[in-house]
Specification:
Blueprint: H1 2-7, E1 8-9, E2 28-31, E3 34-39, E4 46-48, E5 61-63, E6 69-73, E7 86-88, E8 93-96, E9 110-112, E10 117-120, E11 134-136, E12 141-144, E13 164-166, E14 171-175, E15 189-191, E16 196-198, E17 213-215, E18 222-223, E19 237-239, E20 244-245, E21 260-262, E22 269-271, E23 284-286, E24 291-297, E25 308-310, E26 315-320, H2 323-328, E27 330-332, E28 367-369, E29 372-375, E30 378-384, H3 394-411, E31 416-426, E32 432-440, H4 448-459, E33 473-476, E34 481-482, E35 485-486, H5 495-538, E36 554-555, H6 558-564, E37 573-576, E38 580-586, E39 592-598, H7 603-616, E40 627-631, E41 638-642, H8 649-654, H9 663-682, E42 687-689, E43 698-700, E44 706-708, E45 715-717, E46 723-725, H10 738-743, E47 745-747, H11 748-764, E48 769-770, E49 773-774, H12 775-785, H13 809-819, H14 830-843, H15 851-866
Parallel strand pairs: 3-5, 4-6, 5-7, 6-8, 7-9, 8-10, 9-11, 10-12, 11-13, 12-14, 13-15, 14-16, 15-17, 17-19, 18-20, 19-21, 21-23, 22-24, 23-25, 24-26, 25-27, 36-40
Antiparallel strand pairs: 1-4, 2-3, 28-29, 30-32, 30-33, 31-32, 34-35, 37-38, 38-39, 39-41, 40-41, 42-45, 43-44, 46-47, 48-49
Helix pairs in contact: 9-11, 9-14, 11-13, 13-14
């Protein structure tokens, strides 16, 4: 290691002595007194990488990323490190050719040379790296052709196990070889953007079925886009802009997960195929600066995800949309004939600039993180391809990036407390640059290993919700604080110098801190005011007639919710689901509430958040859970409900809640849930399909009255159309309508099917799907074998009490089987279901209009004798 100390300046301060292993040198890991890891990312090192590095024969990881002072050529002797698995030199200043024999490092899993000044051709020998996961050579000055195998010469097409080809922003030339892509590859990212590539996109690209992101923009590619791209069903991001293609917009109907399509300035011509808007996941479409003509008709689109269309500077003559799309889809047709008519004052004939007033001056020194009074963040610049930024809310963008980054850090189990993203600007190629500050958790600084891992996460980040920003590219800054000591230099200071510097530094830090606190508070005050003022726009509640319907739900501050839940304490954690965590809280008024807190970075959570507020803000029924309010401050998304004390029906049937439901109570629960669903189907305007009816989404209050909950998957139903076409089957296995699953047509009868399954659960006590067997099929099969319903003892819940036949049992099973008929047209409506359950209650000698009183009395009486004292009030499921 002495050769590294001689070759580099600004090495860590504890690099003293001759034994890096025994001395526990910063950034050095050992095994059996042999150096195995060197992780010195963002250390501020300067100098060159010495050829003697090859003497570290046991070295497995070499990460010197984000040390811009490291330069020189990559020594050829590095190929002698035969045990090397990770070579990461991101964001340094190395130049010259990549050693031709780099492919002799047979154990290499990551070759990350991003953002240097490497020149020459990509070595053919890289094709020998059979274990390679990541190949990132982007942002260099590499030239020549993309190497593929020929005879005894290897090439990149041999890397069948590699997930990432990142070769963008170089000077690569020639065509994209058809041999580059094979059907046995496992690639997810192919990034060839901003090179000098010519020729056509090879049709072999359509063979790589694992692809998720394709970026070929900024080349001189010609010819038509190959039609077999339609085979790439898992691609989410497709960017082909700034090329010289010919022909029409390709058929992409098979790309079910495509969310971001960008083909601006490509020479496309002809009409836009209407099927383009049937892509189920399409959110952003950018086709500006082409020769597309005819009619842009999105009115028949079945996609519910569409958010933005930019068709500027084409030849579009007519445009058609629905009123709902007018409010929910941002469309720009400036520079088309449709906007040249004198009467063309439509919303799509102007460009609305995003408001960027949320920005504050960026800092790169010590500032405060939310949970640590003094901490040193790791900073750098994150680069994205911007998604239609002109019309997007800048605050939403910022929160989206921060949440996604935090989600990635948590998945990687990194000690990160929080992330701030600020100062977004556009560079000359239209890329978005955002300054990023990552704050440590548990201490006031990061160590070298964590800095290396943070850089890895940021350099492969694909922002979700929607997945249209990535993959990203990160350029880290030097980290000035390791081991509790500022590592600006290693020279010794005199006592007087230290005292003087300390005094001056303390004064500076105090001023900086006061300025930071003032700026932070001012920013928060503005953000709160802005968020409260604009929360309807944030929630896409853009129709003015919807706003008054939110008067029953109020917007909470994050601090209010934190206080009500005792800082989201474990004691108040009462459930979890796909959306996130559920907590119990108490408002200053004494009202108990349940808080659903969206998981950081959750795509599902963001969509459900809007859906539930839209639905619950305009429904008010004693059998539908009441929305108290919501919170979307500090990048959080939380829904606040009335606290429903006795948990879900599923918990009661399974015994988790300790509540016993006799037959009479089960009928009352069925009636309450049916009334809630009938209200949604028949009385709300517009009517609502719940789409996730199940026993876990039927809550029981203190009187055991049923309340329908969880409207995250709900869909409004146009009163003029009984059937709502959709292209995404959503719901819970065991409850999903088979007709909906087969035809992709969603109707209110899909809820009826789910309710029928709930009735069978009430009768049998069983789950809808157990050990691969569906409850509906089991009951149907048994009924076919045994005509006498009451003889089906093996299907009945013994806790009901089978000494005597429960009154109305046969009619209840008969109603359930009608609800789960294969064809929706053969099922009753929820209104008819309500009447039938009322008749069953009459036969059982019960009053269907007094279920609350009777149930409450019997519950209180039974609770003294039947319920265990360990029953927890907080057992609740809202997921």
């Amino acid at each position: 290691m002495s050769m590294l100390m001689d070759a580099w300046k600004n090495t860590p301060r504890n690099w003293v002595g001759a034994d890096p292993c025994g001395g526990k040198w910063e950034g050095i890991s050992c095994y059996n007194s042999r150096v195995t890891w060197i992780t010195l990312a963002a250390e501020g090192l300067t100098g060159e990488l010495p050829g003697d590095i090859s003497y570290l024969s046991e070295l497995e990881v070499l990460d010197l990323s984000y040390n811009t002072g490291l330069s020189g050529t990559l020594p050829a002797s590095i190929v002698n490190l035969k045990k090397l698995k990770n070579l990461k030199l991101v964001g340094c200043s190395f130049y010259g050719p990549i050693p031709e024999l780099i492919g002799s490092l047979q154990l290499l899993e990551s070759l990350d040379l991003n953002s240097n000044r490497f020149t020459g051709q990509i070595p053919h020998s890289i094709g020998n790296l059979s274990k390679l996961f990541l190949l990132d050579l982007s942002y260099n000055q590499l030239d020549g052709a993309i190497p593929v195998s020929s005879g005894t010469t290897s090439g990149l097409n041999m890397l069948v196990n590699t997930k990432h080809f990142h070769l963008g922003r170089n000077r690569l030339s020639g065509t994209i070889p058809k041999e580059l892509f094979r059907s046995d590859m496992t690639l997810i990212h192919v990034l060839l953007h901003d090179n000098n590539l010519t020729g056509s996109i090879p049709s072999t690209l359509g063979l790589v079925q694992t692809l998720e992101a394709i970026r070929f923009e900024g080349n001189s590619l010609t010819g038509p886009v190959p039609p077999n791209l339609n085979n790439l069903t898992t691609v989410k991001t497709l960017i082909l802009s700034n090329n010289k293609f010919t022909g029409p917009v390709p058929n992409l109907t098979g790309m079910a997960y495509l969310s971001y399509l960008m083909m601006e300035n490509t020479g496309l011509e002809g009409q836009i195929p209407p099927t383009l808007f049937d892509l189920p996941s399409l959110q952003t479409l950018i086709l500006r600066n082409n020769q597309l003509n005819g009619t842009l008709d999105i009115a028949r689109s079945s996609s519910s995800q569409l958010e933005a269309i930019d068709m500027r500077n084409n030849l579009i003559s007519f445009y058609s949309e629905t009123p709902e799309q007018r409010n929910n889809v941002d469309v720009i047709l400036v520079g088309n004939p449709v906007c040249e008519r004198t009467e063309a004052t439509e919303h799509y004939c102007t460009v609305h600039q995003a408001n960027s007033s949320f920005l504050l001056p960026c800092t790169s020194d010590q500032i405060s993180s939310p949970n640590s009074k003094f901490s040193y963040p790791y900073t750098g610049v994150l680069f994205f391809r911007p998604p239609f930024l002109e019309s997007r809310n800048a605050t939403s963008y910022r929160c989206l990036v921060e949440e996604s980054l935090m989600h990635s850090f948590k998945n990687s189990r990194l000690p990160v407390d929080s992330v701030y993203v600020n100062c977004p600007t556009n560079d000359s190629l239209g890329y978005l640059e955002s300054n990023v500050s990552v704050f440590p958790s548990g201490q006031n600084h990061f160590n070298t290993t964590t800095i290396s891992e943070i850089g890895s996460v940021l350099n492969l980040q694909t922002i979700e919700n929607p997945d249209i920003f990535g993959p990203s590219h990160f350029k880290g800054a030097a980290y000035p604080y390791f081991d509790g000591k500022l590592t600006v230099s290693n020279k010794l200071w005199s006592t007087g110098s230290i005292i003087g510097a300390a005094a001056g530094g303390a004064s500076f830090l105090l001023l900086l801190l006061l300025a930071g606190v003032y700026a932070y508070r001012l920013k928060k005050r503005r953000e709160r005011a802005s968020e409260q003022k604009n929360h309807f726009a944030y929630l896409d509640l853009k129709k003015s007639d919807r706003v008054p319907q939110l008067k029953g739900a109020r917007c909470f501050f994050f601090d209010e919710i934190t206080k009500s839940t005792n800082n989201f304490s474990e004691a108040n954690h009462i459930g979890s689901g796909g959306y996130g965590m559920v907590y119990r809280g108490m408002l200053p008024t004494g009202q108990l509430i349940a808080i659903k807190r969206c998981r950081q970075g959750s795509v599902q959570g963001g969509l459900e958040f809007n859906a539930e507020i839209e639905v619950l803000s305009r429904v008010h029924h004693k059998n539908v859970v009441n929305l108290v309010g919501f919170c979307f401050e500090r990048g959080e998304q939380m829904l606040i409900y009335e606290f429903v004390r006795n948990g879900s029906l599923r918990d009661s049937l399974s015994g988790l809640s300790g509540i016993w439901l006799d037959w009479r109570r089960r009928l009352n629960v069925a009636l309450g849930a049916a009334r809630g669903l009938a209200y949604l189907h028949e009385l709300v305007k517009p009517r609502i399909i719940h789409r996730d009816v199940k026993s876990a989404n039927i809550l029981l209050d203190e009187s055991l009255n049923a309340k329908v909950a969880d409207f995250g998957l709900s869909k409004p139903m146009d009163n003029s159309e009984l059937i709502l076409a959709t292209t995404q089957v959503k719901g819970t296995r065991g409850y999903i309508d088979p007709e909906y699953q087969e035809t992709l047509l969603l109707t209110e009868k899909s809820d009826v099917y789910g309710f029928g399954v709930v009735l069978l659960e009430l009768v049998s006590g069983r789950k809808p799907l157990e050990r691969g067997k569906y409850l509906v099929a089991e009951v149907s099969s048994s009924l076919d074998r045994k005509k006498d319903l009451y003889s089906l003892h093996e299907l009945l819940d013994p806790s009901i009490g089978l000494d005597t036949k429960p009154e109305g049992l046969d009619k209840t099973v008969d109603l359930a089987m009608k609800c789960v008929q294969e064809k929706g047209s053969d099922r009753p409506t929820m209104g008819e279901v309500v009447k039938e359950i009322e008749n069953i209650l009459h036969l059982a000698g019960l009053n269907p209009n007094a279920e609350a009183e009777s149930t409450s009395a019997s519950f209180e009486e039974a609770s003294q004798d039947e319920f265990p004292p360990s029953l927890k009030e907080e057992e609740l499921s809202l997921s």
